[in-house]
Amino acid sequence: MRGFIFIAVIAAAYTASAVPIDQNEPEYVYERFIKFPDGDGIMHDVDLEAEPDHELLNEISRNPANNRYLLYTRRNPTSPQTLVINNANSIRNSNFNRNAPTVVIAHGWLSNQKSNLNPVIRDVYLRKLEANVIIVDWRRLAMSDYVTAVRGVPAVGRGLGQFLAFVNQITGAPFNSMHLVGFSLGAHLVGNAGRELGGRVARVTGLDPAGPLWSYNSNRLNRNDGVYVEAIHTDGGYTVGGLGIGSAVANADFFPNGGISQPGCLTNICNHNRAWELFAATVTYNHLIGNQCSNNLQITLNNCRGPRLHMGNDDLRKFGNGLYRLDTGRRHPF
Q: Of the four listed, 26, 109, 116, 221, which is most buried by Cβ atoms within 10 Å?
């Protein structure tokens, strides 16, 4: 009996400190001073109560088209073509193929087109199929302080949505052939892009959506941003203050290895980046499958026995709902 009580207490304590949360539970409130990584994995001090750069925010709001849109296809797999909103010839004279799926990739804070996730995800797509891979370089805002970047993400996301509407207008490429993929702050950015388009894009995938300043933020990624919205949580947790948001935000929320720490990782940066590494692997292998969980306790105790759903991949007709747990390996392809 004593043994049973001891196990129950340990389980309860672990649950309280580690489980991902859903919309009905209080969300993690970060301390004022935190550290958050750039695209190279270098940690930076962040004051979450800092005064944002209002001049930059006003500029971004007036002209959210400051983004660069860089197109890669099998005809130009490593040398991008720049697509420009409201410049029809930049699209007509490019290798954009209206009959191929379009994948949009958005990086995170203090990052740019050369950040590691961009070429990795680009290459796995182009090795697998004919696709239009568009990397969004939003460094004009992303290189600002974290608080300013968070404030400006909705405007930049709306700009991306307006750009995709222009692509649709010029080429006829349907929204149901578009998949928006964003990492960290970029996850909330693509959510706002999907929202700008009325939730008509086929898929929106958030790769460990950023946590600080997003817990109660109405502009964060949500399930209405696309026909199907998926989130992959790898560094969450509402009392441990992970870099990613710990709460369920999508139609289907995946919590690999519990969603807090990843095999082979000793740091939050490693856990955080594992989201895009896992996603890239699933585009190639489509091998990571989660079981649906009834609640957060099942995620923590790893005893989810519900229906199975593939995590990630490139399926534009995919759909699912709920919380999912799966276990992965330590190394690629996991």
A: 221
pLDDT of residue 1: 40
Domain ranges, ordered by start, for the chain? 2-326
Instruction: For residue 174, give both structure tokens.
Output: 């349907």
Which pTM value belongs to this model? 0.91
Count of alpha carbons within 13 angstroms of residue 247, beta-carbon side: 20
Question: Is the per-residue pLDDT at 4 higher than 70?
Answer: no
Assess contact for 205 and 39: CB atoms under 8 A. Answer: no
d(CA 81, CA 72): 7
Tens of pLDDT along 161-209? 999 999 999 999 999 999 999 999 999 999 999 999 999 999 999 999 9
Distance separating alpha carbons of residues 130 and 73, to the nearest angstrom: 7
Collapsed DSSP state (helix, strand, coil) of residue 223: coil
Tokens of 134: 């568009």
Q: Cα–Cα distance between 13 and 8 in angstroms, integer?
A: 9
Amino acid type, 80: P
Tell me if 281 sits within 8 A of 332, measured CB to CB: yes
- pLDDT value of position 66: 82
Question: Rounded to the nearest 5°, which phi and psi values hold at 230?
Answer: -125, 145
| Residue corresponding to tokens 């090795």 | 127
Q: What does the pLDDT read at residue 237?
A: 66
Dihedral angle at the C-alpha atoms of 263, 264, 267, 271, nearest 10 degrees? Answer: -50
Omega of the bond leading into 101 within 30 degrees of 0 (cis): no
CA-closest candidate to residue 255, choices 285, 272, 233:
233
Topology classification of domain 2-326: Rossmann fold (3.40.50)
- Annotated catalytic residues are 184, 208, 272
pLDDT at 260: 94
Q: What does 80-105 look like in DSSP terms, one character per residue? A: EEEE-TT-HHHHHTS---TTS-EEEE
Residues contacting 239, CB < 8 A, separation 6+: 16, 17, 18, 28
